[in-house]
Design goal:
The complex is a heterodimer. Chain A is mainly alpha-helical. In chain A, 73% of the residues lie in helices and 2% in strands. The radius of gyration of chain A is 20 Å and the shape is globular. Chain B is an alpha/beta fold. Chain B is globular. Classes of the chains: A mainly alpha, B alpha/beta.
Chain lengths: 324, 264
């Protein structure tokens, strides 16, 4: 036991400490209470995007792979979830399951083709494949083209809990969100996560240690696609529609923006980034102000002032101070 | 020269070659970097690959570790033909290599660097659902390996913060974690201070008792001290092979490479 204790403290300085665990509990409590003060639909949307960005960060921040096609998983899963609810009339948990499964399959196919390449080529291949998927969605009959899939009810979770009430849905999404963040954190701080970090830091060295790096990258890609799909499925249930917006390349760009704003390579970063972007969009949507311009300006400011992203910068300053 | 080759060939037949290449060639476009190289790396011996700059040492090294694909020739690891295998596959079989520019995982602690190498052979590489505490059983072995290269007391430092010589030592510890049967070392002593060179040379001799070692090396003194078999390359071809005494007696070797070095 003592040995395990020692191991906890020494192996990795980025590992969560007791204090962080307390902060996390406080945040979860806050998340449960927030709908008392804030409009729950906004919070739910925020959680969907925060999960999407966290999924993306699993690949970029921990796998070192920049995908430009994550909208395919997010939007693809949204379509499948919506279709399952509307046409197959299954329970929402099955609909989400179908959406995630579709995202995993799509992730496997895209991943197999993309992980052989590195850097900008990897990004370009993911973009090209996602665009192919976009055009598929535009043409395929089940997506209803420009109209999208709409006019379905959220259904009853496990056949019991009616999700029509947004307050009920809030807690369902909150539970899934928190569980997913913990799952992602576990992946990052797991034996597999260590290998992934090694590959990111020195790929050739990892090869020389006998790791078939492409398989590990593919694993990260597929898992990231799965969580992105989960986020997309939740969003489809929340807004009761799935449209081309979710598979458009803008969406892939947006998730990159969120993740970079918040800071890659930390669990909190993408959540903060998504929170900021969604809140800004929401705020500017009512003012008639050009949202894209505002986001672009914010992004430029952040890149100039906080290279590491918001969370990365805070962490860096905190670490610098505690060293003194 | 013929004498030298013959005597090496005689040794080859009597001792088991852990890794051997025949007719190894590599061309980049029109440039033939390596021509028809035969080499045998023997169990329990240190084989030094030397030659002037641009002789093709690194290319041969990368061909043997499979980081480069040969244009022609075969590479055998014991009874296994590894000519067409992927580098990670070759590493899994037991052919471990180091790098010329010390390759460590900079953001990880020393002990984690070694642990990463231990993870795969211990079946702890793909478990994305288990916590890091599951790796604690690898720690004693990792500490042993760090102790072997004299780094045990700084096990929890970041690898990036190490001095150059210690990074090289860490790399050896990481490589040894694979329990290699063939150890390929790319200029293990380059850029090291005199004291570190001594320690490292002792370490390499020590390691070679359990496996076959091939090293590309410029430090002729060390090669003379610990090298059992020497292969001299020039312009991508083998100039001569043999013991240090045989090789250094060859006038063409002196001319091509050693003459200047011996003057000091």
């Amino acid at each position: 036991m003592i040995e395990a204790e020692e191991f906890e403290t020494v192996v990795d300085t980025t590992r969560p400490h007791r204090l962080q665990q307390l902060v996390m509990l406080a945040l979860i409590a806050l998340l449960m209470l927030l709908p008392l003060w804030v409009y729950p639909v906004l919070l739910m949307k925020l959680m969907c995007f925060a999960l999407f960005a966290s999924a993306f960060n699993l690949l970029l921040g921990y796998g070192g792979l920049l995908s430009f096609g994550h909208a395919a998983f997010f939007g693809g899963s949204a379509y499948v979830t919506a279709h399952a609810l509307k046409v197959w009339e299954v329970n929402p948990e099955f609909a989400i399951f179908a959406g995630v499964a579709a995202a995993l399959v799509l992730g496997l196919i895209m991943g197999l083709l993309a992980v052989r390449r590195q850097g900008i080529y990897f990004a370009m291949i993911t973009l090209a494949l996602a665009q192919m998927f976009y055009f598929f969605c535009l043409q395929a009959p089940f997506t209803h083209g420009e109209d999208g899939i709409q006019g379905f009810s959220r259904g009853r979770l496990f056949g019991l809990i009616d999700l029509a009430d947004s307050n009920v849905l809030y807690y369902v999404i909150a539970v899934v969100f928190v569980a997913s963040i913990f799952a992602i954190r576990r992946i990052v701080y797991s034996p597999y996560g260590m290998v992934l970090q090694a590959i990111r830091e020195n790929e050739q060295r990892a090869v020389s240690l006998g790791y078939s790096v492409q398989r590990y990258k593919l694993g990260a890609f597929v898992m990231s696609a799965g969580f992105a799909g989960l986020a997309g499925g939740l969003k489809a249930i929340l807004f009761q529609f799935a449209t081309l917006t979710d598979v458009n390349w803008h969406m892939s760009g947006e998730v990159i923006l969120m993740t970079l704003l918040g800071g890659i390579g930390s669990i909190a970063g993408p959540i903060v980034g998504a929170g900021l972007v969604v809140t800004l969009q929401n705020y500017f949507a009512t003012t008639g102000f050009p949202v894209t311009t505002a986001l672009g300006a914010t992004f430029i400011v952040c890149v100039l002032l906080f290279r590491r992203g918001i969370v990365g910068e805070l962490r860096h300053r905190f670490a610098a101070r505690s060293k003194q | 020269m013929t004498m030298a080759t013959v005597s090496v060939n005689a040794t080859l037949k009597s001792t088991r070659a852990a890794l051997s290449a025949r007719g190894l060639s590599k061309s980049f476009g029109n440039f033939q970097a390596v021509k028809d190289v035969d080499i045998d790396i023997l169990q329990g011996r240190i084989h030094a690959l030397i030659g002037p700059n641009g002789a093709g040492k690194s290319t041969v090294f990368n061909l043997l570790s499979k980081f480069l694909q040969p244009s022609a020739g075969t590479i055998m690891f014991g009874e296994t033909d590894i000519t067409r295998l992927a580098p990670a596959h070759v590493a899994r079989l037991g052919v471990a290599r180091s790098f010329q520019i010390s390759a460590t995982f900079g953001d990880m602690s020393l002990v984690d660097n070694v642990c990463v190498a231990l993870q795969r052979p211990n079946g702890l590489a793909v478990q994305f659902w288990r916590s890091l505490a599951s790796l604690s059983r690898l720690r004693p072995r990792a500490m042993e390996l760090l102790a072997r290269v004299g780094l045990a007391d700084m096990a929890d430092k970041r690898a990036a913060d190490l001095s150059y010589g210690r990074k090289r030592a860490l790399e050896i510890a990481t490589t040894l974690a694979l329990d290699p049967r063939v150890l390929l070392l790319d200029e293990p002593l380059a850029g090291m201070g005199q004291e570190d060179v001594q320690t490292m040379a002792r370490l390499i001799s020590d390691v070679a008792r359990d496996c076959a070692v091939l090293m590309v090396e410029h430090n002729i003194k060390v090669v003379a001290n610990i090298g059992d078999d020497i292969t001299v390359l020039q312009r991508g071809e083998i100039l001569t092979q043999g013991s240090y005494d045989e090789v250094s007696a060859d006038p063409r070797v002196r001319e091509a490479y050693m003459g200047t070095e011996d003057d000091e």
